[in-house]
From TrEMBL:
Pfam families to which the protein is assigned, alphabetical: 2-Hacid_dh_C
A molecular-function term among this protein's GO annotations: oxidoreductase activity
Naturally occurring in which organism (per UniProt): Discostella pseudostelligera
Assigned keywords, A-Z: NAD, Oxidoreductase
Superkingdom, taxonomy of origin: Eukaryota
Protein name per its UniProtKB record: D-isomer specific 2-hydroxyacid dehydrogenase NAD-binding domain-containing protein
Keyword Oxidoreductase: yes
Residue ranges constituting the D-isomer specific 2-hydroxyacid dehydrogenase NAD-binding domain according to the UniProt record: 206-376
Length: 416
């Protein structure tokens, strides 16, 4: 089937559906919208951007920077209006796709107010019945402010967090809020590709012995030496969420075997880039550590995961193993990590996150030659937070307005 034929078929089918549906415009829009969705079986070349007002973008596949969801919506398609409060610092430019007066928000949405504490939001706003709360990590003491905002504006039904982790909001009140039927979503997936690239850099750093290359260059010494391939090695991923899977894709392209640990292994049973998935638990973690040449920890910081990778886990490590942490520092027992590095049980470590940040200047990790340290910035591209806000504006906000299922739901009790 040619692209032209596919377009003709898609257009005729959509028109036939519209004739059958009569005047039910909301259903017409839903069917037409899904017809052009990223999961459509039609070839990509069959989609004609001039033939429809709807544009879609799969973040991993787009190379042209198109907006990602519905750009134009008619009044008939709006199921509910989005009245938004923004809990963020006003000078945070990363929020500009939402907060800049010149930004074009989806039809059926409006920003009511920006602030960092309840007093910034006047009582009179209650009459506007705000129903969406956008929360930015730039809000000071956000974990304290969020429950107060929710109490002041009980009409809020959806909280979106502009980060992947929600640990900066963690409090005893947070699960109580979401248990009332309020939906919470996050920006998961907006930071994964850069972090996955960092993992492969870290693996190559040790496999090709980059520290020795740098030393020899500085000393002007020409001595060849053996290096290692990544092909055929096993990568173990602790926390197989969006970051973990993005990493697995790259690792599999290098010819590595991938094993993973996640809370619900059944979700990855048919994953083509992961060879084996274990459930959580001490024994499974030790099993993963014992068979992996490279271990990547991308687990979030929660009550269950803090200190999870401890001395027992490191004792089970496969000889010559490299440990990479890019999730959250508190998930690792740093004392146990340091001991394993000193003893030679671990070949090396690449660390982007730490229990205390910034890492204290007197911490012994700074002086260890077999440790690669980065200041929690391996996802910090020039546009990463700006794009996280665009995800809210262009992806989830239209879904909310159209009464569609929101992306990236978060379980506040689990912490992810």
């Amino acid at each position: 089937m040619t692209a032209t034929t596919a377009v003709a078929m898609s257009t005729s089918t959509a028109r036939a559906l519209q004739r059958l549906l009569g005047r039910d415009t909301s259903l017409q829009l839903s069917l037409t919208r899904r017809f052009y969705s990223p999961t459509s079986s039609l070839p990509k070349k069959a989609w004609d951007p001039h033939a429809s007002e709807y544009k879609y973008w799969n973040r991993e596949e787009s190379k042209h920077g198109e907006a990602s969801y519905v750009l134009a919506m008619s009044p008939e398609s709006v199921q509910k209006e989005a009245r938004i409060l923004c809990l963020a610092a006003e000078d945070d430019d990363a929020n500009s796709p939402l907060t800049n007066p010149s930004s074009k928000l989806p039809f059926g949405s409006r920003l009511l107010k920006i602030g960092t504490q309840p007093t910034d939001f006047p009582d009179s706003l209650a009459s506007e019945r705000p129903n969406v709360l956008f929360v930015s990590p730039s809000c000071p003491h956000a974990r304290l402010q969020l429950p107060l905002i929710m109490h002041k504006f009980p009409t809020i039904e959806w909280i979106h967090v502009r980060s992947a982790g929600i640990d900066f909001l963690e409090s005893d009140e947070l699960p109580k809020i979401t248990n009332k039927g309020i939906i919470m979503t996050n920006a998961k997936g907006q930071f994964s590709s850069s972090l996955a690239e960092y993992v492969m850099l870290a693996c190559s750093y040790f496999a090709k012995n980059i520290p020795r290359l740098l030393q020899q260059k500085k000393a002007k010494v020409w001595n060849d030496f053996d290096i290692e391939e990544l092909r055929g090695k096993t990568m173990g991923i602790v926390g197989y969420g969006d970051i973990g899977r993005a990493t697995a894709k790259l690792a599999s392209n290098y010819g590595m075997k991938v094993v993973a640990l996640r809370r619900n292994p059944s979700k990855s049973e048919l994953d083509p880039v992961c060879d084996e998935v274990f459930g959580t638990g001490k024994q499974n973690l030790q099993k993963l550590m014992s068979i992996s040449d490279y271990v990547v920890c991308s687990a979030p910081s929660t009550v269950e995961t803090r200190g999870m990778v401890n001395a027992d886990a490191f004792k089970a490590s496969k000889p010559n193993q490299v440990f990479i942490n890019l999730g959250r520092g508190p998930v690792i027992d740093e004392d146990a990590l340091v001991a394993s590095l000193k003893s030679g049980a671990l070949k090396g470590a690449a660390l982007d996150v730490f229990a205390t940040e910034p890492l204290p200047t007197d911490h012994e990790l700074w002086d260890m030659d077999n440790v690669l340290i980065s200041p929690h910035n391996m996802d910090k591209t020039a546009t990463f937070m700006h794009e996280a806000t665009e995800f809210f504006v262009n992806e989830n906000l239209p879904r909310f307005i159209l009464g569609d299922t929101l992306l990236n739901p978060v379980d506040a009790t689990l912490g992810y």
